[in-house]
Design goal:
five-stranded mixed beta sheet, 12 helices, 31% helix
Length: 375
């Protein structure tokens, strides 16, 4: 395909979109919509309320995430976001949409319906998010560990294909970290619909939090800081100074020890262990030599070093364990899709508008599990 492709990577917390061939997506927007009453139906619960993008200053408590834990729960909101992104284009481009591994089969059909009937795109390709992360690394073998806003997902790959028996999805992500900081920062006044509190939590995550190499040593370090130290202070947007606790600063520890935060499920190192051990024993060392990270939560300082250390403790006899954390891994899914969008071996996987209108459903081959290798 000679024409550039418009790529939409729709996650639980952020939507990344733009034309293929760039080093990063030009559009990165919160996966948030709000509703406002319209003149014909002014009631706040009316089915014909107007949907808008992001927050509303007039109706600050009406916003929500249309995708939760990797599952689309508000198709109207999703369609509004896609329409906003595509309406900014000056031409009709083919569209590649990444899909979550936890999607239902009907989701692919609904995506095609919106793209072809409402948004009038000429061609459509659906691609698995974890496989796109693999392609962004330039590798064909390894374990992809993606830690996003709603989910942590681990999948092993061999020769570019996912190994069906070794995949694990855990409902642990940035949403849980936000929830912890909401409760600990604002306590009884915690209000997740409060935009001020949300921005405070996000800023705290981005500027103060990190993954400790050794949890107890890091806790002792922060506890022993002199009272005059400003290292653990954070200034709220209203100018108020708040002293952060060691637990708040070290809260990304939850991805390595979720039970300390009252969360079920395995840690990321344990999830990788389960996926690797589900594979043939002869391939385990090969898989561990290429652990590929993706997702915004893996961007915390010291995340890569801590994961490498924990995997070394789990597999003390294995040599050559490697964790790849590319600097652009926040965009790994989008970048992988940008790479494969023009592979000639994917040409047959595209759905055209004509095929859809003739009554053909999205073919199963468009899913990542059956995508062919690039030539």
């Amino acid at each position: 395909m000679a024409k550039r492709v418009f790529i939409i990577d729709h996650g639980s917390g952020v939507v990344k979109a733009g034309l293929s061939g760039l080093n990063e997506p030009p559009s990165v927007i919160p996966d948030i919509v709000h509703y406002t009453p319209c003149r014909e139906n002014p009631g706040p619960s009316s089915e014909r309320r107007r949907v808008g993008l992001g927050f509303s200053s007039r109706y600050p408590r009406s916003w929500s995430y249309p995708v939760q834990r990797g599952r689309i729960c508000n198709w109207e909101g999703v369609e509004h976001i896609w329409s906003y992104l595509l309406n900014s284009l000056m031409d009709d481009f083919p569209v590649l949409v990444t899909e979550s591994p936890v999607k239902e089969s009907k989701d692919s059909q609904k995506t095609a319906e919106i793209m072809f009937e409402s948004l009038q795109v000429p061609r459509l390709l659906l691609a698995d998010q974890l496989q796109m992360s693999l392609y962004s690394s330039g590798l064909l073998n390894g374990v992809v560990a993606d830690c996003g806003f709603g989910l942590t997902r681990v999948q092993s790959f061999q020769l570019g294909y996912p190994l069906a028996t070794s995949c694990l999805t855990v409902e642990l992500g940035g949403e849980d970290l936000c929830d912890y900081l909401f409760k600990s920062l604002f306590k009884d006044k915690c209000d997740r619909q409060n935009v001020f509190q949300l921005r405070t939590v996000i800023t705290t995550q981005n500027s103060k939090c990190y993954v400790p190499h050794h949890l107890q040593e890091a806790l002792h370090f922060h506890q022993d800081l002199p009272a005059c130290s400003d290292k653990d202070f954070y200034k709220l947007p209203d100018g108020q100074d708040v002293q952060l606790t060691p637990e708040q600063i070290l809260s990304p520890e939850m991805f390595f020890n979720p039970h300390k935060f009252g969360l079920p499920g395995p840690s990321l190192p344990q999830a990788i262990k389960e996926v690797v051990n589900a594979c043939d024993s002869s391939s385990r060392e090969m898989l561990l030599s290429s652990v590929i990270l993706g997702g915004g939560n893996t961007m915390y300082p010291c995340f890569v070093r801590r994961l490498l250390n924990d995997l070394g403790s789990i597999y003390p006899t294995f040599r050559g364990i490697s964790v790849t954390g590319n600097p652009n891994r926040y965009f790994s899914v989008w970048l992988g899709a940008s790479i494969v969008a023009h592979f000639s071996s994917f040409t047959s996987q595209w759905i055209t508008k004509e095929e859809y209108l003739e009554g053909k459903k999205p073919r199963s081959s468009t899913c990542a599990s059956s995508m062919p290798l690039p030539k």
